[in-house]
Design goal:
Layout: E1 2-6, H1 12-23, H2 27-36, E2 43-48, E3 51-64, E4 70-81, H3 90-104, E5 109-112, H4 119-122, E6 129-140, H5 141-145, E7 155-159, H6 162-172, E8 178-180, H7 183-195, E9 200-205, E10 208-218, E11 221-228, H8 234-244, E12 249-254, E13 265-274
Parallel strand pairs: 4-5, 11-12
Antiparallel strand pairs: 1-2, 2-3, 3-4, 3-8, 5-13, 6-12, 6-13, 7-9, 9-10, 10-11
Helix pairs in contact: 1-2, 6-7
């Protein structure tokens, strides 16, 4: 027998066990998530013989369209089934339950970020389609040093609050199709960044304001999870980031329309499912942008 419900007190240890088995994250990372972001009322679990075997989290976000429409959305996160219970349809059952639960609460879209490439083939069977993309570029210190800067603009970078970051993010994505996060979720990203020895930052170049979120992978490798700045100022921003946060290798994620000249590759990043009967239409041409997504 199986049962589906929202999470309750006493469920966390089993959830942490499944998370570790499915995603391979460190105990420190898992403990950090449950201490800083976990909410029982946003977590659904499926039990088989009174034991949790599948889980997922429903993070409330907004989908913003170029015409300024905002749609209530949930980002499904940490969708996981215990390895000994896979290929039995349990994840599909929990997804269907969660999406109906969201629909009943007037949520119009469900989005998620598949944990690996194989899952891009699985989720269409659950009603999901590709709709959100990123451009990912690997840069080394030498290539950054060689970047040309058209004008010697003054560039300042400093850590900023979650609220200010979110304001800048909204301004830089104006007129685009993207996922908007609550300040508390940007604050979670700030804490993630700080736990790695970095932060979320504001970029000021003359009278232009931008932002970026970084995480240090190692002393030699830096992950820039998001950077939002006009394209003509991108090289200058990257060079200043390299001075502030030195590394040998930089993994740079940008929206799919930003920094094509850097030689990276655009790939599908997030998927969506329409939950309500509406006129919502999303195509690959929209090049939706999801952002840091806590992956």
């Amino acid at each position: 027998m199986y049962k589906i419900r929202l999470s309750q007190r006493g469920d966390i240890l089993r959830q942490k066990e499944i998370w570790k088995l499915c995603f391979g994250d460190s105990d420190d990372f898992i403990d950090f998530y449950y201490a800083q972001r976990y909410k029982e009322e946003e977590t659904a679990v499926l039990l088989h013989n009174n034991e949790i075997i599948t889980m997922l989290t429903m993070i409330p976000v907004k989908t913003v369209f170029p015409d300024k429409r905002m749609v209530n959305t949930a980002m499904l996160y940490a969708v996981a089934t215990h390895p000994s219970h896979r290929n039995k349809g349990f994840a599909g059952q929990l997804l269907n339950f969660s999406n109906q639960y969201l629909k009943d609460r007037k949520i119009e879209l469900s989005v998620l970020v598949p944990a690996n490439r194989k899952l891009f083939d699985y989720y269409p069977k659950q009603g999901y389609e590709e709709g959100f993309y990123i451009q990912e570029t690997i840069l080394n210190r030498e290539s950054i040093d060689r970047m040309s800067v058209p004008k010697p603009y003054h560039c300042e970078i400093s850590a900023i609050s979650s609220k200010e970051y979110n304001q800048r993010r909204t301004e830089r994505l104006y007129g685009r199709f993207y996922i908007s996060y609550a300040d508390e979720d940007v604050d979670y990203q700030k804490k993630l960044s700080q736990s790695s020895g970095t932060d979320i930052y504001g970029i000021n170049i003359e009278n232009i304001e931008g932002c970026f979120a970084a995480e240090r992978i190692s002393s030699e490798k830096l992950f820039i999870k998001e950077i939002l700045i006009p394209e003509n100022l991108l090289n200058l921003a990257i060079k200043q980031i390299a001075k502030l946060l030195p590394a040998e290798e930089y993994v740079l994620r940008t929206p799919p329309y930003l920094g094509n000249y850097l030689g990276g590759s655009i790939r599908a990043f997030g998927m969506y499912r329409v939950l309500s009967k509406s006129d919502l239409r999303i195509t690959s041409k929209d090049l939706g942008y999801l952002g840091f997504a806590f992956d």
